[in-house]
Amino acid sequence: MVDPGALGARLASGAVAPLVKKLFVTDQPGAALVTKPVRISGLVSFKGEKRDVAPKDVEKIADELVRRALKAAGPGELPVDAAEAVAVRTALAHSLATLGTLTIADYEAVALGPEEFARTLRSQSAVTVATFALSRDAELFLERLLHTASLHILNFFTQRSTYIARQQTRQSQQLAHLVKAVDALLERLPSQSSEDAAFEARYASYITARHGTLTIYGLDVYAGTSEWPLDTAYLSLEATRDRPGEGAAQVAAEQVLAQHDHVLLRGVAGSGKTTLVQWLAVTAADLTYQHGLTHLMGRVPFVLPMRRIVRPGTELPVPADFLTAVGCLVTGEQPAGWVERVLRAGRGVLLVDGIDEISEERRKDAKRWLRDLTRTFPGNLWLVTTRPSAVPDKWLDTTDFAELSLSPMTHDDVETFVRRWHRAADADERVGTALLESVRGASELNRLATNPLMCGMLCALHRDRRGFLPQDRKSLYEAALTMLLERRDVERDVVAVRMPFATQVQLLQKLAWWLIRNSRVEMDRSEAVHILGEAAPSMNLDGSGEDVYAWLLLRSGLLREPAHGRVDFLHRTFQDYLGARLAVQELDFDLLLNHADHTGWEDVILLAVAHARPKEAEQMLQRLLADGTARGKLLAAAAASYAAELAPAVRRGLEDGLRTLIPPRTVKEARVLAEAGRDLVLHLLPGPDDIDEELTHLICLVAATVGSSSALHFLTRFRDHPDPKVQWVLATSWVRFDRELYLREILAHLSHRPTVLVHGSEDLRALRSIGGWPDIQIIGTYRVEDLTGLIVPDQLTRLTLDAPHPVEGLAWLTAFPSLTDVWLYSPVSEAEAQQVPPHVRLTVRPSHGN
Q: What share of the chain is helix, strand, coil (3-state, %, to 5)?
């Protein structure tokens, strides 16, 4: 038998090259600067402006490559049987299809080389070899085929007329960038004494070592350490600035100091503020300057956590005392006057972390301190972080600080985090993939996976239970509480006074139920201390309420202080779970049901049913049904799945009540159902195979109106449904969801491609990324240059302009050769109508405002 690793190499260039060229658009002359940089995805003919090759054609190309390779092997030398040949073809097709999503430029691909480029294609593919359970011979065969294809793909890139021209242009740009960077570096590195230079080198090494790792929850149990290298752990999040009249402008968080010298960055607990501070410090200290961020080159970082530098009865530190105030281990080597010389030269990056972690009285001192420093030492970069509610808007406006907010983790961020966590813990990649599927499909997991700490907890819990998460919420939270309150310290061998698990839960319940009853999400520290102090004697606890509070804050992992003197739970879901538990113990069912119409009490009621004894649960459900409202019926039906035991008569009553709501019979009923139930209703809706086809689009409308990530997951089950009304609902609903995720999961899979609603240039760019769309309706004002520049010309067949103001001329419609119909909801003159190409049918309708 022939060596399967060498078999792919037998394919002659004359056989492979024509197949590879089918994947790409026709070459164009010049340096291709119009679409700089030219991404590989822009060259692929099934993704870009031309659709010469459909995604199915990629399978044909892969099939042909496999067929020719097997033919080249000759009789008796086949390395794989017929079944594995099909699996190899499928895996190869998926890898080649990722060419349409690669965002690297062609010159970057050539620089990778064929082996690394082949690995890139494999890693980007959603389908791995493990999915197909290939034999070792089949894996070698696939690797060689992909390597051979990669050789020809890269060779194709170098033969394009644009490649050499673009390489020359790129080298010129790199030279200009290098000159600019050197100029900036020379400007920021004035003549230094040898003592200053030597100390800066030692200080930079200290900063890199001190801030070069992150503590990631859960890794301490599985990887032997909780620390993660910063360069592999850092997630680039977005920061948003709301400009009056301009909407929200987003920028990568690490770039905020490139746009503004002074920044006040707000972010909720766990959103990544301190991680960003660490990343900026280490990047500025990186003397190799490989990061390419010119604004940080030659600068010296000072990390100033407010909780460490603000001490009772003392003034905030002057520059000479910065290193001493934060306990820097090389402060004794600091040359006299060094910090002042750095700041006088405008070379400092001052990272002031956690304004919210000091008392309100000291925040006034901090404001004066920041004002004096920025005025005394101009030209330095300043980043100040805080939680949103700790300081008012424009708190530092008098010192020219731009205010931005750190955005939460996106779906992609969560996916990246989960995959990195499992790699760091040396876990099977398939375990992480299984967790992501669970998070995506369960609303309660979605609500938990909002920041790195909670994502780490889910990863640890998922692996702790060997790839299994409890299917009901009550069990999920019980398992999480056990891990947080008991097992974590035991498994880490932490030596500490341990409070019994049941006692911890009882104390935390009292805090949670107090918050719920008072419609609060946080409380004063004094209120928490008082509640715990009253409970301590009955639980036979030594110490005061202050002592108990301090222990729970330090060891439980469930309480935190979002600001000085304020207390809340790590996540709202734990508050609801613990509060519901105590509500049942205290028999507060009337209080629970009197708040059934409040969405903030929804989870509390559901979890109370889970904790209640059978008769108590039945009485709660019957009272919800007796309410007679759509919300009462939905809440009762949803809560039924939380009850361990229900009498048949009660269950029949729930089913009868639900039948009056689901399925909806009209659009109005569908919208009412969605508004009444939100995520509740998703678990009660039938799937595509369980509903009358005439009503299927109304089921989709309910989920689309809910508009949550769980609703998106639910809608993926309908994307192949043949009913045009279903396809229309799916195409017109993406404005309610995350644009990129909906595009990838729903729009890209629709077969009929009905009218899609577009509200701005970003929507058009998104549609262009999947090769364009034939039927587009523009809602609101638009710019002609956006339409002609962002709509794929050959794809557009029907265009609707629903604008509040008349269009200014229609001659630009000639840019779309395939266009057949144009609908306008604004008046046009006869002269403008004459500008419409002769092959286009124009229909003018009255404005919706008339």
A: 60, 10, 35
